[in-house]
Write a structure and sequence with these properties.
two-stranded antiparallel ribbon; Arc Repressor Mutant, subunit A; alpha+beta; about 140 residues; DNA-binding; transcription (chains A, B); homodimer; about 15% strand
Chain lengths: ~140, ~140
DNA sequence: CGGTATCCCTTTAGATACTG
DNA sequence: CAGTATCTAAAGGGATACCG
């Protein structure tokens, strides 16, 4: 995803001027946690060290290309630590950094919010779809 | 975005079994707040009612197609309320529902997390890029 | 004013074969 | 084992013209 972002020119998120820089920090974090596999990796590495193939087997449907790309981005952002052991066959281990743990905690509270409100959302959707269906006649 | 999701088969997010249903609630909420324009709309409607054109003018670069799609999804999820006044020319107003306010609060705490850790992330990236650059030689 | 409809392009992700 | 390379498919989003 690109441009616009909930970054304000001031310190206040609710300010009226919106930043459209791709560099916006909030947007970047959001893009990271919202991508298709990052959250799974973050959760699997919670209090646990896993190797590449272990991650791959634990995440149903991920291709080696996407898993590599995902862990590399997480590593680049300082959320995951990658350790290469110079042995044959190669052994590479992944674990969360303290920053990764912190983000995982943040995500947990989003999960909690979702659990608390999923019924409301579902009800809203049902009503919306029902009204849409009846006005189609 | 599609399939996999940080939904467990149990109540516990940290459980080991991962759900790959597109219906996962967490994934749906994440997809909503991570899309390109929803967060901007949510923030602009904070404590404020705005008309379609007002939103459009406030969000730099949004096309009518995307703005319509964005507010419709937010409305369907019960986050935004859309009120049509049967006058000519038409008048349509958007405002947050209590659920929308609640999600906006949740997002605010993500913003806060990001502000608190953006220096760490930036430092990690710099180091990663620096190492990548030097190992390229 | 508040949208829809249409077309097109870019980004993202999946499949698969291959390698140090 | 832990990836990389290449190709393809699909989703997301932009531009623009038009309509009730």
């Amino acid at each position: 995803m690109k441009l616009p972002s909930p970054c304000s020119d001031t310190e206040d998120y609710t300010a009226r001027q919106w930043d459209t820089r791709a560099e916006c920090e909030v947007r970047q974090v959001l893009d990271r946690i919202a991508d298709k596999w990052s959250l799974l990796v973050l959760a699997l590495l919670d209090r646990r060290t896993l190797r590449f193939t272990e991650l791959r087997r634990s995440i149903d449907g991920v291709s080696p290309r996407m898993l590599t790309s995902t862990v590399r981005q997480l590593e680049r952002d300082g959320l995951v630590e990658r350790t290469v052991y110079p042995v044959v066959p190669p052994r590479v281990e992944y674990r969360l950094t303290p920053l990764g743990v912190s983000l995982h905690d943040m995500v947990q509270s989003l999960v909690t919010w979702t659990e608390e409100h999923q019924d409301e959302i579902a009800a809203a959707r049902d009503e919306y779809d029902r009204k849409a269906a009846e006005s189609a006649y």
